[in-house]
């Protein structure tokens, strides 16, 4: 995956993260792109807004994409390293690629995905990292709840 394209796609996921933060939620965003580069679905972490513990950014993007015959060649772009739940979704449905905005705040399952044949690109994006760092500093209890550490 070309870094320039990945950064362009990350901008859309980052917009979702900012929208989630503005709604009072956790600032994580994701977009699922088809093999042809067309966005299939986008989403943001809505655990707080909807009271739904399964409403992670990646699952919301996946749900928004609707039923697809195949996810081969698809790319999940997420502002933060995907947790085990979302990493499992990527593996279960054969999503080919994951672009990670940052993995400083949280290291999820992206290395596991790479070890199992998923192409992973970690961009180490400063804007994604700053957004999460500021959120965690202001909301440590909510963050710990989100990552299952409370």
Can you give me a brief rundown of this structure?
The protein is α/β, with parallel strands linked by helices and 150 residues long.
| Residue fraction in strands | 15-25%
Helix and strand succession?
HEEHHEHEHEHH
Helix content: 40-55%
Biggest sheet strand order reads: 2-1-3-4-5
Structural features, described:
With 150 residues, the chain is α/β, with parallel strands linked by helices. It contains 7 helices and 5 strands, in the order αββααβαβαβαα. It has helices spanning 3-22, 47-50, 57-65, 84-92, 110-115, 126-138, 140-146; strands at residues 29-33, 39-44, 75-80, 97-102, 119-122. The protein has a 5-stranded mixed sheet, sandwiched between helices. Helix 6 crosses helix 7 (140-146). It is globular, with a radius of gyration of 14 Å. The relative contact order is 0.17.
Descriptors for this entry?
single chain, 150 residues, alpha/beta, five-stranded mixed beta sheet, 5 strands, 45% helix, 18% strand
Helices, strands, pairings?
Elements: H1 3-22, E1 29-33, E2 39-44, H2 47-50, H3 57-65, E3 75-80, H4 84-92, E4 97-102, H5 110-115, E5 119-122, H6 126-138, H7 140-146
Parallel strand pairs: 3-4, 4-5
Antiparallel strand pairs: 1-2, 1-3
């Amino acid at each position: 995956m070309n870094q320039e394209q990945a950064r362009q796609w990350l901008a859309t996921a980052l917009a979702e993260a900012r929208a989630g933060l503005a709604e009072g939620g956790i600032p994580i965003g994701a977009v699922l792109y088809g093999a042809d580069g067309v966005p299939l679905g986008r989403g943001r972490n809505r655990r707080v807004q909807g009271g739904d513990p399964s409403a992670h950014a990646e699952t919301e993007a996946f749900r928004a994409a609707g039923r697809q015959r195949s996810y081969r060649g698809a790319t999940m772009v997420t502002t933060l390293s995907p947790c085990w739940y979302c990493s499992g979704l990527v593996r279960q449905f054969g999503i080919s690629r994951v672009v990670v905005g940052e993995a400083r705040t949280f290291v999820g399952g992206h290395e596991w995905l790479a070890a199992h044949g998923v192409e992973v690109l970690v961009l180490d994006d400063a804007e994604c990292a700053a957004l999460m760092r500021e959120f965690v500093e202001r909301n440590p209890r909510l963050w710990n709840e989100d990552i299952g550490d409370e």
